[in-house]
Amino acid sequence: MAQNTVENVTKSPVTLLGLGAMGTALARAWLAAGHPLTVWNRSVARAEALAAEGAVVAATAAEAVAAGRLVVVCLLDDASIEEALAGADLAGRDLVNLVTSTPGQARARAAWAGARGARYLDGGIMAVPPMIGVPEAGAYVFYSGSAELFEEHREALAAPAAVRYVGADAGHAALHDVALLSAMYGMFAGVAHA
After folding, report:
1. What is the 3-state secondary structure (H, E, C) of 72-120?
2. What are the pLDDT digits (tens) for 82-99?
3. CATH number assigned to the domain comprising residue 119
4. Based on the structure, what is the number of domains in the chain?
């Protein structure tokens, strides 16, 4: 496994699929923290700036997955995960899904990943892209699913934002995410009404 040493601390490699606003913010946070990073995006142009910052750009999602054990997905929706990973060998990989989904979708995706030989962790990001990689901004990510995967990759997962493990049920991160977003929308509606 390729590793990068920054200030005598070994950093684990990360593969990131998806370079929208959130994916790009995550990528920059991992690069700033010294993690070797492989990225893939459907439109290659989004990866060019990250390549100049030190990321390795994979030509296909399958090539990106093959680059390392920890694979983080930050794509548009649940359907895009299956599409992007259709030709990828997930056996022995640790798949972390940061796509906004429902608890049911997260549980189904965990079973899907397990059937392909991967450990699975679901995540709910409680931040907007400008908060990522800025510790004082208060960003954090709920994670649920494989406790072993979470503990093994805790340091890498915590580079972009604080982490909160909420249980072995893969659907719990999505449940926490939707609960807090629902409260936020109610609060904003109350402020607008007042």
Report:
1. EECCCCHHHHHHHCCCCCCCCCEEEECCCCCHHHHHHHHHHHHHCCCEE
2. 999 999 999 999 999 999
3. 3.40.50.720
4. 1
